[in-house]
Design goal:
Largest sheet: 13 strands, mixed
CATH class of one domain: Alpha Beta
Radius of gyration: 37 Å
Structural class: alpha/beta
CATH topology of one domain: Phosphorylase Kinase, domain 1
CATH superfamily of one domain: Phosphorylase Kinase, domain 1
Strand content: 15-25%
Helix content: 10-25%
Strand order of the largest sheet: 1-2-3-4-5-7-9-11-13-15-17-19-21
């Protein structure tokens, strides 16, 4: 019995000793890791508000995550700012990370880390699963040591100044799911065995200087979802092996130097594709027929290539509709087909389509520089005829039947032509001598009748409703016909449309009037300008706009819908609502991206299209109007309609000197 009791006491003391040793080891490890974090805080110059000295890093430090034993597993200093002293001599100094033996994630995106990537990431931090160094101003090359991170799942080195080749050994990272090297200066070729990264879901190598061709092994990445190789210098053709990317949703290879036609079976298995961007890549030939029936397609841009094909005359039975189709700058031809009913926004410009425009084509579709009947700015007859003749086809001459020259007209001699011309000229002269005196007499009588009219002289002051037989004169003395100038709305209609001019519908307050968004009974979206005659210095300012819209109209001038002039204290002018608001609000827009705080800017192609639209509107005002109209605003109020088509708003019209003498904008 005594022996058993001694044995039990011995076991208890051994257990207590092991427990104390484990607790001591845990406390020692936590102290060591806190010391390492303090060294990292000092070397990076982090602020006390983010990492306070007198605090538990696992509980009080921003971006620090620990496991249940208090060991640091994640560090996130994304977007942190250095102290004033830290900004004086910033360095990529993270040597103390080697003491964090359980570290699985290091995210320093958008934190200034000038210099090359330290070799310790691959030599010491072997437990890393996430390494995000995007937008850190990193220089140098991709270190070979990174290939030793066998647990690495995410490697993001985008938006830096990294150069050199992509290490061939990088393909040994078998657990990698995200690889982003975009927006650097990486050159050379894509590793031929990149298909070995069997777990890769996102690959972005865009905006570098990569050359050679697209490796066929990319088709082995069966779980790949996003592939972006755009804006490099790659050449050659697209390998048909890419059809093996069964889970691919985004395929972007725009802005390269590729050639040849697309493989006919390229899209045979890519049923999940949503975004395709092949613009400006040098492709030729016909498009694979499977492309037009991809069920999940949302965005298709193949502009700026040399595709030459006819649109299939079929409809698509899928419920989803494609947001945007851009096939401009190619050599598509033939008639517009029912296929376009699947698309909401289309750009078919700079092709060779012919025939009439069907009703199912979107009203805001871009159709310029084609061979179509009706729209302005089409190609010349000679260009269209030559193109179709090379195809072995006959051009329809814009729907006009060519006059056939018959050999039977050879009998018409020169003498007979002279006789017919003389007879016709005599008849025309007799008609002029008869009609001219009658016309002059009628005009004189009408002028005398108007001069003896009983109406009082002087101009109407524009306040109150118009008499039934009177119209308002413009500033030039020419009366405006309100019956033909837009629609006439009642005050109650505009109250209903704008929710009684509520603050929630207020768009902008201006010197010439307040702008409210509204919706008519038929669902049309409008903008109502409410002009107060009591608060406005010039109570006839609204006549300026009415006079302008009675004289001029252009696609780049905001459409005038109607007016309401029945109120004695307020006048209301109604315009069409522009879907994309004003230009300053559209240059930058929010996105779901975690980079750049979710703020994206318009691409330069869209900006160029907006600038061209503004130039068209101003050219019309300056050169096509008679007399010329010159604006005085330094920053014209520009609105953007569907697909970013620019229009000049009525706020600009108020500053036209020819309609508003004495007005000066500041």
């Amino acid at each position: 019995m005594v022996v058993l009791r001694k044995t039990s006491l011995l076991v208890f003391f051994l257990f207590l000793l092991l427990l104390l040793e484990s607790t001591f080891e845990q406390q020692t490890s936590s102290l060591n890791e806190k010391s390492a974090l303090l060294l990292l805080r000092s070397s990076l110059g982090l602020r006390s508000r983010d990492w306070p000295v007198k605090g538990n890093p696992c509980l009080n430090w921003n971006g620090i995550k620990c496991d249940q034993n208090g060991r640091v597993t994640k560090i996130n200093i994304s977007g942190f700012r250095r102290t004033r002293i830290g900004n004086q001599n910033p360095e990529f100094s993270v040597g103390s990370l080697v003491n964090l033996t359980r570290l699985a994630s290091f995210n320093a995106s958008r934190f200034y880390l000038p210099g090359p990537i330290p070799a310790l990431f691959g030599s010491s931090l072997l437990t890393l699963e996430v390494l995000d160094l995007s937008s850190c101003s990193i220089t140098g090359t991709i270190p070979e040591s990174l290939t030793r991170l066998s647990h690495l799942k995410v490697l993001d080195l985008s938006k830096n100044a990294i150069n050199g080749d992509i290490p061939l050994s990088l393909t040994s990272l078998q657990n990698l799911s995200i690889l982003d090297l975009s927006s650097n200066s990486v050159f050379g070729s894509i590793p031929a065995n990149i298909g070995a990264l069997s777990k890769l879901q996102r690959l972005n190598l865009s905006r570098n200087t990569l050359t050679s061709s697209i490796p066929p092994s990319l088709g082995d990445l069966s779980v790949l979802i996003d592939l972006d190789l755009s804006f490099n210098g790659m050449s050659g053709s697209v390998p048909s092996d890419l059809k093996g990317l069964r889970n691919l949703q985004t395929l972007v290879i725009a802005g390269n130097r590729l050639s040849g036609s697309l493989p006919p079976d390229l899209f045979s298995l890519l049923s999940k594709l949503q975004i395709i961007d092949f613009r400006g890549s040098g492709f030729i030939g016909a498009l694979p027929s499977r492309l037009w029936s991809l069920p999940e397609l949302k965005f298709l841009d193949i502009s700026g290539n040399h595709f030459s094909d006819m649109l299939p005359n079929t409809t698509v039975s899928f419920d989803s509709t494609v947001s945007m189709l851009n096939i401009s700058g190619n050599m598509f031809y033939g008639n517009l087909t029912l296929l376009l009913t699947r698309f909401q926004v289309v750009d078919l410009s700079e092709n060779y389509f012919e025939g009439k425009i069907p009703d199912f084509v979107p009203t805001r579709a871009s159709l310029s520089n084609n061979c179509l009947q009706g729209p302005e700015k089409q190609r010349k007859l000679s260009d269209c005829t030559l193109f179709y003749s090379k195809k072995g086809l006959t051009f329809n001459n814009f729907g006009q039947h060519e006059e056939k020259k018959s050999s039977k007209t050879s009998w018409l001699s020169h003498t007979k032509i002279v006789i017919l011309a003389a007879v016709g000229g005599s008849i025309l002269l007799m008609l002029i001598l008869i009609v001219l005196p009658i016309t002059v007499s009628f005009c004189v009588r009408r002028r005398n009748r108007s001069s003896t009219s009983n109406h009082p002289r002087g101009r109407h002051n524009g306040v109150g409703p118009l008499p039934p037989d009177e119209t308002l004169p413009s500033r030039g003395g020419v009366s405006i016909n309100f019956g033909s100038l837009g629609s006439s709305f009642t005050y109650q209609q505009l109250l209903n449309a704008t929710k009684e001019f509520s603050d929630s519908n207020l768009i902008k307050k201006g010197q010439s009037g307040d702008l409210f968004k509204g919706v008519l009974e038929n669902g049309v979206q409008i903008v109502v300008k409410r002009i107060s005659l009591e608060s406005t210095k010039n109570n006839e300012a609204y006549l300026t706009e009415l006079d302008f819209f009675s004289r001029f109209a252009h696609p780049r001038i905001i459409p005038f819908v109607g007016k309401s002039l029945e109120s004695a204290t307020h006048k209301f002018l109604v315009y069409k609502y522009m879907l994309n608001r004003d230009l300053p609000s559209s240059l930058f827009y929010k996105s779901n991206s975690l980079v750049d705080n979710g703020l994206r800017s318009l691409d330069w192609i869209t900006r160029l299209k907006i600038a061209l639209g503004v130039a068209e509107g101003l050219a019309y005002l300056h050169h096509d109007c008679s007399p010329s109209v010159v604006h005085r605003y330094e920053k014209p109020f520009l609105l953007l309609f569907f697909y970013f088509q620019a229009t000049i708003s009525s706020l600009l019209i108020l500053s036209l000197p020819m309609f508003n003498k004495g007005y000066s904008s500041k």
